[in-house]
């Protein structure tokens, strides 16, 4: 027993042991920072939801921002891009794309990845809808700004923006993890990665430009989507490590038999 303890102490004092200890400590610190920021974000979203529920009308800065965005002289191709992003990412087209992507992952045997994307998008959009049902903020009025498609309620948070965060965000995350990272033809994903980033960045601006949301709505959509995306990334990492440990333990038991 004493010899075993001595070996463990020697390992901890060795360069490899010290490196592992430092790496583990940095990982715990980083994890603590991420959790703290996540809680702050959740509290911020909850506070903003209550404030917007009690003050559903636009704040002066929101009205000023929308009018400024809509009165800019855009090149025709810019308007076409903003309109395309708003239309292409409506529920029906993105639902079809999500189904195709998940089906492709299942055919390739990427079951955990498919579950991760489906749950992130489904649960994230569901929670966002529940928040919208509580806040019941009216959409921008055509008497105040230009409105492409007149709608009534659930302006806060922006469902389109939240969906972009959880949908494209989950796909972007997977594109930098195994097994995609080790895929021989992963370079073909670069245009799709760029497309995903542009959709996330431009969606909020597009919703204000089209008069579908106020500035606070799109900011809350980004925050809401970021919160649920981060939560499911954490759960996916935990589940992946859990499955790997179980698989390693099972292989070890089989080799000993």
Question: Could you outline the blueprint of secondary structure elements for this entry?
Answer:
Blueprint: H1 2-13, H2 15-54, H3 60-70, H4 76-88, H5 91-107, H6 111-135, H7 159-175, H8 190-209, H9 215-256
Helix pairs in contact: 1-2, 2-9, 4-8, 5-6, 6-7, 6-9, 7-8, 7-9, 8-9
What would your notes on this structure say?
27% of the residues are buried. The protein is 77% helix and 0% strand. Helix 7 runs parallel beside helix 9. The protein is mainly α. The protein is globular. It has one domain: Vanadium-containing Chloroperoxidase, domain 1 (Up-down Bundle).
Q: Spans with pLDDT under 50 lasting ≥5 residues? A: none
For the report, how would you describe the main beta sheet? none
The CATH topology comes to Vanadium-containing Chloroperoxidase, domain 1
Helix content, binned percent = over 70%
Measure the end-to-end span. Answer: 26 Å
In CATH, the architecture is Up-down Bundle
Number of domains: 1
DSSP summary: helix tally: 9
Name the helix and strand elements from N-terminus to C-terminus, one letter apiece: HHHHHHHHH
What is the averaged pLDDT score? 88
Which structural class is indicated by helix and strand composition?
A: mainly alpha
Number of strands: 0
What Rg is obtained from the alpha carbons, in whole angstroms?
23 Å
User: So what's the CATH class?
Assistant: Mainly Alpha
Q: How much of the sequence is in beta strands?
A: under 5%
Give the overall shape.
globular
């Amino acid at each position: 027993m004493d010899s075993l303890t001595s070996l463990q102490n020697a390992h901890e004092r060795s360069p490899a042991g010290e490196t592992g200890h430092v790496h583990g400590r940095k990982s715990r610190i980083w994890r603590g920072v991420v959790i703290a920021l996540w809680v702050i974000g959740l509290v911020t979203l909850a506070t903003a939801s209550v404030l917007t529920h009690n003050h559903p009308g636009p704040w002066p800065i929101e009205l000023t921002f929308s009018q400024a965005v809509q009165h800019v002289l855009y090149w025709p191709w810019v308007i076409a891009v903003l309109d395309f992003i708003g239309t292409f990412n409506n529920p029906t087209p993105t639902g079809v794309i999500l189904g195709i992507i998940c089906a492709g992952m299942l055919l390739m045997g990427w079951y955990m990845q498919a579950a991760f994307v489906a749950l992130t998008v489904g649960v994230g959009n569901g929670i966002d809808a529940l928040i919208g049902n509580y806040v019941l903020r009216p959409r921008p009025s055509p008497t105040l700004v230009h409105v492409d498609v007149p709608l009534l309620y659930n302006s806060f948070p922006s469902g389109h923006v939240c969906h972009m965060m959880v949908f494209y965000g989950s796909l972007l995350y997977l594109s930098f993890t195994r097994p995609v990272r080790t895929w021989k033809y992963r370079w073909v994903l670069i245009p799709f990665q760029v497309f995903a980033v542009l959709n996330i960045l431009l969606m909020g601006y597009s919703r204000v430009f089209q008069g579908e949301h106020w500035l606070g709505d799109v900011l809350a959509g980004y925050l809401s989507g970021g919160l649920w995306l981060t939560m499911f990334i954490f759960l996916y990492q935990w589940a992946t490590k859990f499955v790997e440990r179980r698989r390693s333990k099972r292989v070890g038991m089989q080799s000993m038999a």
